[in-house]
Amino acid sequence: xxxxxxxxxxxxxxxxxxxxxxxxxxxxxxxxxRWKDNPPDPAPFRADPDPVRPRRSAWTSxxxxxxxxxxxxxxxxxxxxxxxx
Length: 85
Description:
The chain is built from four helices and no strands. By secondary structure, the protein is mainly alpha-helical. The model has no long low-confidence stretch (mean pLDDT 82). It has a domain at 7-39.
């Protein structure tokens, strides 16, 4: 008897791949049974779980950054003036 390589030694993969009918996976069978009586609602592919809020405009963000920088400058100036007294 010729020696079989490791790939075909335990199971004849060529025979299995040539099968006319392939059995669905356990998950596919479970979902088919679940959806038989209660089909899922249609949903877009990989839909977002929650809708995203619209983003603020670039001008609003820019104004907030400049406002914070201005507030820090004023606060540091006030603290320096208090230290000089």
